[in-house]
Each structure stands twice: as structure tokens, then as C-alpha cells.
UniProtKB/TrEMBL annotation:
<dbReference type="InterPro" id="IPR053863">
    <property type="entry name" value="Glyoxy/Ble-like_N"/>
</dbReference>
<feature type="domain" description="Glyoxalase/Bleomycin resistance-like N-terminal">
    <location>
        <begin position="4"/>
        <end position="41"/>
    </location>
</feature>
<protein>
    <recommendedName>
        <fullName>Glyoxalase/Bleomycin resistance-like N-terminal domain-containing protein</fullName>
    </recommendedName>
</protein>
<dbReference type="Pfam" id="PF22677">
    <property type="entry name" value="Ble-like_N"/>
</dbReference>
<dbReference type="InterPro" id="IPR029068">
    <property type="entry name" value="Glyas_Bleomycin-R_OHBP_Dase"/>
</dbReference>
Amino acid sequence: MPQMIFVNLPVADLDRARAFYEAIGFTTEPKFTNDRAACMVLSETIYVMLLTHDFWAGFTDRRRVDARTEAQVLLCISRDDRGAVDAITAAAVRAGGTADPCPVQDHGFMYGRSFADPDGHIWEPMWMSAEAVEQGPAEMSHAG
């Protein structure tokens, strides 16, 4: 079985959050979805668990931050091309998210944007050319 990642996000309104993630291309896994959590599938190995604030609090004693005013992580996901980066960002805006809370990155070989979901969690869809992936960090040194 391949290694998987489950990103757990606290959300104020589970139904709204679930609708947002469905609108940008995630699917709901009903086996792990109830009135306190929704399992949203991005790929065979990437899942997002949307957790109500009360349910979230049962997993940690740490203070939950307000993602609309504070950031703990930026969630970067690859896309197949530049158009797919723009498409998921546009879908996020149509579904109630905010476009580009972080600067747009366009380095020719790499292109990235960002969007915030209705709870303020920041996602960074990005595309990188196959040549840049093959060449590795040396090609990336031309960024900026």
C-alpha cells in the first residue's frame, strides 16, 4: 500500500467546507464522513479531513488558530499545467474562496498561485516543467 497523507483542517461550517472542496475537484469518501467530519479525496494518496471545531479539539490540546488571520501551513499541490493552476484557483473563487492571498509565482519553468478556502486555509496549486523537475535545484536557482 502506498504511503498516504491525511491533512486535517478545522472548519467552522462542515457543509460549507465540504461543498467548497467538492466544487474544486475533491470527492467525498462516505465511509469516513459524518456530522463531525468529512473525508475529501484529492488523489489515491492525498486526503483532507474536514473537522468541526469541537471534533478538532479532541485531537490536540494546542490552541486552534484562525486561518483567516494566521498561517501555520501552506498546502502546495501539483497541477498538470499552468491552465490547471488557474482553473482550480478560479473554481475556488466561484465556490466562495479567495484568490491569491500569497503572491503569484511565475518563473517560466514554474508557475504557482494560491487560494484560501472559506475558513482561510491556504492552498498553493503549482506547475513545474518536466525539465525543471529533472534538473533539480540548479534550475530552481534562477527563481526570483
